[in-house]
């Protein structure tokens, strides 16, 4: 899973990302404009893996399911990609440039 900071570059805003599952804390990361952070994890045999994330920046806060096995197992073959923009977050299918999930 990857989270990209796509906030306007003229604002030089950092975003704070904290993702975790029921069992694992993937840590807090600070992402500069135009940069990204990546999280690695394994899907459990029952396909119930859930990674939830909180993202904060000076203009907002969002909490969302960054990875939900039943939703994303086929949607994200290699990566679940998330862009953070001023209007909120956007999720993309692996290898596709059109968003298919929007987080206000």
How would you summarize the topology of this molecule?
Elements: E1 2-5, E2 15-20, E3 25-31, E4 36-38, E5 50-57, E6 60-68, H1 69-72, E7 81-85, E8 88-92, E9 99-103
Parallel strand pairs: 1-7
Antiparallel strand pairs: 1-4, 2-3, 2-5, 5-6, 7-8, 8-9
Protein name: S-protein homolog
Keywords: Membrane, Secreted, Self-incompatibility, Signal, Transmembrane, Transmembrane helix
Transmembrane segments: 45-67
Query: How much of the sequence is in beta strands?
Result: over 45%
| Model regions low in confidence, pLDDT < 50 over at least 5 residues | none
Structural class: mainly beta
3D shape: globular
Global mean pLDDT? 90
Element pattern in H and E: EEEEEEHEEE
Sheet with the most strands: spatial strand order: 4-1-7-8-9
The largest sheet, given as strand count, sense and whether it forms a barrel, is: 5 strands, mixed
- What percentage of residues falls in helices of 4 or more residues? under 10%
State the helix count.
1
How many E-type strands? 9
Structural domains: how many: 1
Distance between the termini: 19 Å
Cα radius of gyration in angstroms: 13 Å
Transmembrane segments: 45-67
InterPro entries: Self-incomp_S1
Main location: secreted
Protein name: S-protein homolog
């Amino acid at each position: 899973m990857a989270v990209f900071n796509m906030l306007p570059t003229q604002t030089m805003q950092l975003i704070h990302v904290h993702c975790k599952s029921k069992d694992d804390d993937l840590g807090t990361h600070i992402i500069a404009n135009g940069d990204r952070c990546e999280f690695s994890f394994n899907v459990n045999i029952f396909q119930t893996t859930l990674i939830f994330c909180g993202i904060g920046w000076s203009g907002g806060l969002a909490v969302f399911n960054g990875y939900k096995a039943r939703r994303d197992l086929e949607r994200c073959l290699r990566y679940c990609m998330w862009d953070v923009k001023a209007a909120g977050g956007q999720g993309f299918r692996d290898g596709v440039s059109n968003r298919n999930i929007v987080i206000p």
